[in-house]
Design brief:
The complex is a heterodimer of chains A (257) and B (343).
Chain A: E1 5-16, E2 19-30, E3 33-39, H1 45-52, E4 60-65, E5 68-70, H2 75-80, E6 83-86, H3 98-102, H4 112-116, H5 122-135, H6 152-166, E7 170-174, H7 182-197, E8 201-205, H8 209-215, E9 218-223, E10 226-232, H9 238-246
Chain B: H1 2-8, H2 10-42, H3 49-74, H4 82-100, H5 113-139, H6 145-164, E1 169-170, E2 180-182, E3 186-189, H7 190-208, H8 210-220, H9 222-227, H10 232-258, E4 260-261, H11 269-279, H12 291-310, H13 316-336
Antiparallel strand pairs in B: 1-4, 2-3
The chains are: A alpha/beta (257), B mainly alpha (343).
């Protein structure tokens, strides 16, 4: 079953020195589907997301986007392919303003000679950043403020909104509900659902299992660098999911996704 | 708990931060006015075009490297080599003019301009090359900027003595470039005017252009900058090359001032530049600072130096006063952040 598969990695392995972070891991993302990626600390989730986003090159294995084999030399190449990523706690430059963060790496310049010299159209970026964030359902404070002046929840909202606003094919979210209260977390889950409706392939890493069970169509469980389960959400309940994560349930649901 | 949470309420914090941030330059201007007032009261001759001319002439050589230092520190680094680069670039420029071109000190005035242009190109190139070496050590060998630039500082000090055999090298010059345009009314020299233009352009690039934005971004969060698709190493390289090139330009400035390239002409200037930047509000942790702050910080530094001499205090007092200014500036910064390094 490969219909609708948009982005996948096959049999990737990645080691940091002696530590093997990923061992023969495979995962696929379909357009219009939310995949939950769960596992204990050190299971390899963050390493996998960094392979998918072009931060790390895998030691071995394949990366396929739209059936084409790809190899990212830098995060820029993955970004250019429409793959956006929210990294846990580290997606924003705190001393820059909200709109500077939203446009970081994709700045709008003024027309003419000054634009070619890299002079920025800050007014236009402020306006568009506000519109982009509102469009994806993130209520944001005035764009002229630096991120250090925002609360933890506001920062997280800006980081999520930035990723969703730019994503064209794939969006990878590592703990998007960190620092958020219950109501704001529901807002983020709604943003994720909206991204699915737009036909994006969404991957959600979260330790908050109720959210995973609520919003995901399919759940992938990792343990010690390996994918140990990959099945529709309906195959799991809270207990079996925890059991699969910790390893107390070894007979994982069939990999029927 | 209540007071802490209310202190962290964003709109209160924003208002307070805004007020202080917009006051940052105003505070520095206030400090400068108070200093000028105090020194003028103690020594009426202080308040004169001649004194202003002297202060601006000193300011011109250090503000160039202080602006480079501002870029470097905002990007999360430090450049200890710039003082040594001033000496090395002035010596190399003078050696090129005197030995390679064979032009002696007898060539003065406008006849010297062609030779001096060659000297300026050499001077800036030497500085840029040292900056490139700094960037290589930091990016490719992953040496901490403090250590990498300490090493190049030592090498530059050594080379400048080797090239000059420890003696100043004289060649063609036009001293009128460094003299006040009008000694009665205008304390600026053409050299200082040129420095102001360079600093202004670099201010626009830091605060209005992509080059500056990436400089702040790298110093603020290098990982976030990298995953936004920006080449962090390339940005660091540009910043260290800029710092080196500005030190080279300062080397040419010092050459024009002395009419000779002297190996010791920049010794210790890196510390003046760091002090000026810090007084001006640049945070050594990266991501924070303005060109205007550094310009004012440098002016304060030399107003203090000049004033203390004129009121008859030993120059050693300058170090004490500068120490107090640095402590006050950094203390104000950490109060502004609400408690500094405390968790």
């Amino acid at each position: 079953m490969t219909d609708g598969v948009l982005y996948e990695v096959r049999n990737v392995t990645k080691s940091y020195g002696q530590v093997r972070a990923l061992e023969d891991a495979s995962i696929m993302l379909r357009a219009g589907e939310v995949v939950g990626l769960v596992g204990d600390n050190g299971a390899g989730k963050s390493t996998l997301i960094k392979v998918l986003s072009g931060v790390h090159r895998p030691d071995s294995g394949e990366i396929l986007l739209d059936g084409q084999q790809r190899s990212w030399n830098s995060p820029r190449e993955a970004l250019d392919a429409g793959i956006e990523t929210l990294y846990q706690d580290s997606s924003l430059a705190p001393h820059l303003t909200v709109s500077q963060n939203v446009f970081l790496g994709r700045e709008l310049t003024v027309p003419g000679f000054l634009g070619r010299m890299g002079f920025l159209n800050s007014k236009k970026m402020d306006e568009e950043a506000r519109e982009d964030l509102e469009r994806v359902g993130i209520l944001i404070p005035p764009s002229g403020r630096t991120v250090t002046q925002l609360s933890g929840g506001q920062r997280q909202a800006v980081a999520v909104g930035r990723a969703v606003a730019w994503a064209r094919t794939v969006i990878l979210l590592d703990e998007p509900t960190n620092h958020l209260g219950a109501r704001q977390s529901i807002d983020v889950l709604n943003v994720i659902a909206a991204a699915r409706e737009q036909g994006l392939a969404v991957m959600l890493i979260s330790h908050t299992l109720p959210y995973v069970l609520q919003v995901c169509d399919r759940i992938v469980v990792m343990r010690l660098g390996r994918v140990v389960a990959d099945a529709p959400r309906s195959s799991f309940d809270a207990d079996s999911l925890i059991g699969t994560i910790t390893g107390s349930i070894n007979s994982s649901p069939a990999n029927e996704a | 708990m209540k007071s802490i949470s209310s202190r962290l309420r964003p709109h209160v914090g924003r208002r307070r931060l805004r007020a202080l941030a917009s006051n940052q330059s105003a505070i520095l201007v206030g400090v400068l006015i108070v200093l000028i007032g105090v020194f003028s009261a103690l020594e009426p001759k202080f308040f004169s075009v001649a004194t202003a001319g002297n202060i601006l002439t000193d300011w011109g050589s250090v503000v160039l490297i202080a602006v480079g230092m501002t870029y470097v520190i905002i990007s999360g680094g430090i450049d200890l080599s710039v003082g040594a680069v001033v000496g090395l670039s002035s010596v190399t420029a003078a050696w090129t003019m005197a030995t390679v071109l064979g032009v002696g000190q007898d060539v003065q005035g406008s006849a010297a301009y062609g030779t001096m242009l060659v000297g300026a190109v050499v001077s800036v190139s030497v500085g840029a090359l040292v900056g490139l070496i700094n960037a290589f050590l930091i990016n490719k060998l992953h040496i901490a900027p403090f250590i990498a630039t300490l090493a190049t500082m030592g090498a530059c000090l050594g080379f400048s003595v080797i090239i000059s055999t420890g003696m100043p090298i004289g060649s063609a010059n036009d001293f009128s470039l460094i003299a006040p345009i009008d000694s009665s009314y205008v304390p600026f020299s053409w050299a200082v005017v040129a420095v102001i233009m360079v600093v202004t352009i670099l201010g626009f690039f830091l605060h209005k252009a992509r080059f500056g934005l990436y400089t702040y971004a790298v110093g603020s969060n290098a990982f976030a900058t990298r995953v936004a698709g920006i080449n962090v190493e390339r940005q660091r390289t540009k910043v260290y090359v800029l710092s080196g090139a500005l030190a080279g330009l300062a080397g040419m400035y010092v050459y024009i001032r002395l009419g000779a390239g002297s190996p010791s002409s920049g010794n210790g200037r890196e510390l003046d530049a760091i002090a000026a930047a810090v007084i001006g509000g640049v945070a050594l942790s990266g991501g924070v600072g303005t060109i205007l702050g550094t310009v004012l910080g440098t002016l304060i530094l030399f107003t203090v130096q000049s004033g203390l001499i004129m009121v008859g205090l030993a120059p050693d007092w300058k170090k004490v006063v500068v120490a107090v200014l640095i402590a006050a500036a950094v203390g104000a910064q950490s109060l502004r952040r609400g408690g500094g390094s405390q968790p």
